Amino acid sequence: MNNKERYWSPWTPWIIFVAIIVIAAIWCNTMCHKSFFRGIAIKPAGTVVFVPDSPNNFIALVLPYALEIRRDYHIPASILIAQAANESGWGKYASGNNYLGLFRSYGRCEFDDIQDCFQYYAMRVSTERYNAAMAACNSYQYLVEIKRAGYAEDSGYVAKTWDIVERYNLTQYD
Question: Which domain holds residue 10?
Answer without folding.
Answer: 3-37
